[in-house]
UniProtKB/TrEMBL annotation:
<protein>
    <recommendedName>
        <fullName>Peroxidase</fullName>
        <ecNumber>1.11.1.7</ecNumber>
    </recommendedName>
</protein>
<feature type="binding site">
    <location>
        <position position="255"/>
    </location>
    <ligand>
        <name>Ca(2+) 2</name>
    </ligand>
</feature>
<dbReference type="GO" id="GO:0046872">
    <property type="term" value="F:metal ion binding"/>
</dbReference>
<feature type="disulfide bond">
    <location>
        <begin position="49"/>
        <end position="130"/>
    </location>
</feature>
<feature type="binding site">
    <location>
        <position position="84"/>
    </location>
    <ligand>
        <name>Ca(2+) 1</name>
    </ligand>
</feature>
<feature type="active site" description="Proton acceptor">
    <location>
        <position position="80"/>
    </location>
</feature>
<dbReference type="InterPro" id="IPR019794">
    <property type="entry name" value="Peroxidases_AS"/>
</dbReference>
<feature type="binding site">
    <location>
        <position position="86"/>
    </location>
    <ligand>
        <name>Ca(2+) 1</name>
    </ligand>
</feature>
<keyword id="KW-0349">Heme</keyword>
<feature type="binding site">
    <location>
        <position position="263"/>
    </location>
    <ligand>
        <name>Ca(2+) 2</name>
    </ligand>
</feature>
<keyword id="KW-0408">Iron</keyword>
<feature type="signal peptide">
    <location>
        <begin position="1"/>
        <end position="30"/>
    </location>
</feature>
<dbReference type="Pfam" id="PF00141">
    <property type="entry name" value="peroxidase"/>
</dbReference>
<keyword id="KW-0106">Calcium</keyword>
<comment type="function">
    <text>Removal of H(2)O(2), oxidation of toxic reductants, biosynthesis and degradation of lignin, suberization, auxin catabolism, response to environmental stresses such as wounding, pathogen attack and oxidative stress. These functions might be dependent on each isozyme/isoform in each plant tissue.</text>
</comment>
<feature type="binding site">
    <location>
        <position position="90"/>
    </location>
    <ligand>
        <name>Ca(2+) 1</name>
    </ligand>
</feature>
<keyword id="KW-0376">Hydrogen peroxide</keyword>
Length: 355
């Protein structure tokens, strides 16, 4: 009976989503949701950079074949970009001692430098083929999509046309917008509600933790001074081995069943009390989200469908379009930032006079 109900839900979902018209300009052939924001469209770069999506997919296929961990780094970058000041590429900006950026807030510690490098490399390759027409914010969004797909997850079309922001958020704004791993479900629901994301979105998006790693300080609140009773005992003992002290610099995988594969095993972990963070495991402890966790754990297609919906929505949080932003010449700095001067010497396209 339960199975029948969830199959029916998936069927209705597929029927509904297939009603949307598809643009011919895509590498994907998947379930997708049309743009929610005026100024964004699937075919934004159709004439200015027709091979954009295949350039990114080909390059990331190469990058991931060498180091699959970068996929998780790219996916997380997209989350941090969108939750702090919108999906405007601001997370990519490097700060300075006098003006610390989003990258300098504590959650940064663990943003992968390789992911930042991958975005900058992609930008260079794309500029080489199309000129400077694609924003770093769009590159980050497409890279996150490909991180999901190339890790075994669903494919989906991404509304495009974001512009890059002209400023970054302060450390305080960053901390206020990014939920820490010690949050319980109540706090997570509140945090996500401020982004107009609900319980279904929260449980689906938390499924990003089906790939990647976490460092000890992110989860030792569950080991010291007392062991979290919602933590499986055998799993807890393994974690004490990884983190002999709460501030150990060691790390471990977020999904013990299939750490590099984008699937519904994260939700299966939660059913078995093997979620790594408080923010993960509490989704199963709390009766407002437990049913959602279970439904995704038993039905991967349902998880994928809800995930695509939620990440497409997240990917359009407070985006800049049209004249609201710029196309950066270097994803790490705004075009007016003088600190970029050092990187300009060999770039013929930009005259120094503009600085
Ligand atoms: C629900 C609230 C969330 C919290 C509290 C949270 C927290 C965290 C923390 C603490 C880490 C590990 C940092 C470290 O110790 O190395 C992490 C890793 C990660 N997060 Fe989240 N996260 C959340 C939502 C998301 C979402 C929505 C996404 C994707 C859109 C995401 C994607 C990732 C990925 C892929 C990693 C692994 C990164 C890597 O391996 O380098 N997270 N998250
Ligand atoms: C992250 O933030 C901390 C604290 O603000 C800072 O000391 C550190 O240098 C930053 N790390 C990176 C990799 O940017
Ligand atoms: C950041 O927040 C802390 C604590 O909430 C506060 O003491 C500090 O003044 C804030 N800094 C800025 C620049 O707003
Ligand atoms: C969740 O955390 C908040 C803030 O830490 C706390 O006030 C609240 O009681 C917690 N809720 C539950 C259901 O544990
Ligand atoms: C979240 O919103 C979607 C529509 O945007 C809806 O289908 C879903 O039922 C909502 N989830 C919850 C738990 O209210
Ligand atoms: C970690 O914590 C231990 C004990 O609290 C302390 O002795 C040690 O200096 C800390 N190490 C770091 C790197 O902070
Ligand atoms: C890292 O983990 C290993 C076991 O996996 C442990 O022997 C070692 O002490 C840990 N190192 C630190 C700095 O916590
Ligand atoms: C959910 O749990 C809360 C306490 O944690 C309880 O008061 C409430 O009755 C439960 N609701 C359902 C529908 O089980
Ligand atoms: C981009 O800017 C960063 C930060 O100023 C700089 O370190 C880097 O060399 C620049 N990259 C290029 C390709 O100029």
């Amino acid at each position: 009976m339960a199975l029948g109900t969830s199959s029916l839900t998936s069927l209705l979902f597929l029927v509904t989503s297939s009603l949307f018209l598809r643009s011919p300009f895509h590498v994907t052939n998947a379930q997708s949701y049309p743009p929610l924001v005026e100024g964004l469209s699937w075919d934004f770069y159709e004439s200015s950079c027709p091979n954009l999506e295949s350039i990114i997919r080909n390059q990331l296929t190469k990058v991931f074949s060498g180091s699959i961990g970068v996929a998780a780094g790219l996916l997380r970058l997209h989350f941090h970009d969108c939750f702090v000041q919108g999906c405007d590429g601001s997370v990519l900006l490097v700060g300075s001692a006098s003006a610390p950026s989003e990258q300098d807030a504590p959650p940064n510690l663990t943003l992968q430098q390789a992911a930042f490098q991958t975005i900058n490399d992609l930008r260079g390759i794309i500029e080489g083929q199309c000129g400077r027409v694609v924003s770093c914010a769009d590159i980050t969004t497409l890279a996150a999509r490909d991180a999901v797909y190339l890790s075994g997850g669903p494919d989906y079309d991404v509304p495009l046309g974001r512009k890059d922001g002209l400023s970054f958020a302060t450390i305080n704004e960053t901390l206020a917008n990014l939920p820490p791993p010690t949050f319980n479900t109540s706090a997570l629901l509140n945090s996500f509600a401020t982004k107009n994301l609900n319980a279904t979105d929260l449980v689906a998006l938390s499924g990003c933790h089906t790939i990647g790693i976490g460092h000890c300080p992110s989860f030792t609140n569950r080991l010291y001074p007392n062991q979290d009773p919602t933590l499986d005992k055998t799993f807890a003992n393994k974690l004490y081995g990884v983190c002999p002290t709460s501030n150990s610099t060691n790390f471990t995988v977020l999904d013990i069943r299939s750490p590099n594969k984008f699937d519904n095993k994260y939700h299966v972990d939660l059913l078995n009390r093997q979620g790594l963070f408080t923010s993960d495991q509490d989704l199963y402890s709390d009766n407002r989200t437990r049913g959602l966790v279970t439904s995704f754990a038993v039905n991967q297609d349902l998880f994928f469908a809800k995930f695509i919906y939620a990440i497409t929505k997240m990917g359009q949080l407070s985006v800049l379009t049209g004249d609201e932003g710029e196309i950066r010449a270097n994803c790490s700095v705004t075009n007016s930032d003088k600190s970029f001067l050092s990187g300009l010497v060999e770039n013929e396209e930009i005259g120094l006079s503009q600085f």
